[in-house]
Design goal:
- By secondary structure, this protein is mainly β.
- It folds into 2 domains: 265 residues, no CATH class; 26 residues, no CATH class.
- Helix content is 14%, strand content 41%.
- The chain contains 7 helices and 22 strands.
- Strands 5-4-8-10-12-14-16-18-20-22 form a 10-stranded mixed sheet. A 9-stranded mixed sheet has the order 6-7-9-11-13-15-17-19-21, with helices on one face.
- A hairpin with a 2-residue loop joins β4 and β5.
- The protein is globular and about 70 Å long.
Length: 403
């Protein structure tokens, strides 16, 4: 096969070539695993058929995301697996989600309000989740297909939890890392979830995460991206959020981009829900940062707000695509979506595209986007107060992201 190099039991490949390698079994994956029927038999087959027909990397969905940095990246699969030292992560975080495995402290064994979903755990019924992992024609399909196995965490009903999760990797190699995860929050539960996405040096990490937020629950996710090795690491995080009736969900994302970052959020919102999506990004050097938010209002009387802000400097690249879809029966919806960008360099690039698809009149919807430079009058005013130019610029930048 053109472009492939095989030496010393190692295989180098790009993501464009990966669909043709799935059947070879270069790693344990959902399609070739002996446990496939216990996990996602239909979804893995459908994902495989989808990527054979249309490689996700060629999807026009990625047209403004500077996708070439992923197309040309060389991944290396090897029989030699060097285990990575996690530094202090095991003591810093409550739960560590890895490729096909969940690491957690002993106290969770006794905590009946939290249960861990391991791929090889006896009596674990993953089949009921597979409708949420049907192909979408995106990189999440490659993630699902090439995961060692699905993992997850389940929070029981009517509890209050404050939990931190690190998405990490066991092996210190340059191979693609894929994590397919399920986060299920029971009815009436109040959850604050701190998420941390660890970079894998000289490698790409794909995530396909489904969040099931049951009736009457309230969930706040504080999502942060690793700043170490970000210039030579790529993270593609696809989140699918299902908000059952009368639930509340807030996602607060912060980051600086990386060699290539995608934060893709698809939400299905039902009756009487509250949804709040916040994003603050400070992108500089040659970092690439892309965010996509799609709110699909399926039920009545729901409230949603999207506010994503980015600072783009040096040769950085930023893109935002946001959409609000309101179905015909979803009357009483109140939804707003805004994206604001502060462009500080002639060599930086920013793409912003807000969209509305409204199918009923009995709603309130707004959307908008801005791209601006630092206001010279504001800068001058701060300097007249004795503040030097650099400090004045930093103050304006901080205010832009927080006010």
């Amino acid at each position: 096969m053109k472009g492939l190099v095989q030496l010393d039991k190692s295989l180098s490949y790009t993501l464009l070539e990966l669909p043709n390698l799935v059947n070879i079994g270069i790693r344990d994956n959902l399609l070739t695993s002996k446990s496939k029927d216990k996990w996602f038999p239909e979804s893995s087959d459908d994902c495989f058929k989808s990527i054979k027909e249309n490689n996700p990397l060629l999807n026009t969905f990625y047209r403004n995301m500077k996708i070439d940095s992923l197309k040309t990246h060389i991944n290396t699969a090897s029989d030699t697996k060097n285990k990575k030292i996690w530094d202090n992560n095991q003591n810093t975080f409550d739960i560590i989600l890895d490729e096909g495995k969940v690491h957690y402290p002993n106290y969770l064994e006794q905590d009946k309000s939290i249960s861990v979903m391991q791929p090889f755990k006896k009596y674990m019924n993953f089949n009921k989740y597979q409708p949420y992992f049907q192909p979408r024609g995106r990189l999440s399909d490659l993630c699902t297909l090439n995961s060692i196995g699905p993992i997850g965490v389940k929070f029981t009903k009517n509890t209050k939890q404050d939990v931190s999760i690190c998405y990490a990797n066991t092996f210190d190699d340059k191979d693609l890392s894929c994590i397919t995860a399920i986060i299920e929050i029971g009815k009436g539960t109040n959850l604050v979830l701190d998420e941390y996405f660890e970079n894998k040096k000289d490698s790409i990490k794909l995530y396909n995460i489904v969040y099931l937020i049951k009736e009457g629950s309230s969930v706040t996710i504080n999502r942060k991206y690793d700043l170490n090795d970000k210039d030579n690491s790529a993270s593609i995080v696809e989140s699918r959020v299902i908000q059952f009736p009368n639930s509340k969900f807030t996602l607060d994302v912060t980051g600086e981009g990386s060699k290539h970052t995608q934060d893709i959020v698809d939400l299905e919102i039902y009756n009487d829900c509250y949804t709040n999506i916040l994003g603050t990004f400070n992108c500089f050097d040659k970092s690439i940062n892309n965010m996509y938010v799609n709110l699909d209002h399926k039920g009545e009387n729901s409230f949603s707000r999207v506010d994503v802000r980015s600072i783009i400097d040096d040769q950085a690249h930023s893109s935002f695509l946001g959409s609000i879809n309101v179905e015909k029966s979803a009357t009483g919806v109140d939804a707003e979506l805004f994206n604001k960008n502060l462009l500080l360099s002639n060599t930086a690039t920013v793409f912003t595209e807000p969209q509305l698809d409204i199918n009923t009149k009995e709603i309130n919807c707004k959307h908008g986007c801005t791209v601006s430079n630092i206001d010279k009058d504001q800068l001058y005013y701060l300097q007249t107060k004795g503040i030097d130019k650099f400090t004045a610029e930093e103050t304006i930048k901080r205010c832009f992201l927080t006010i």
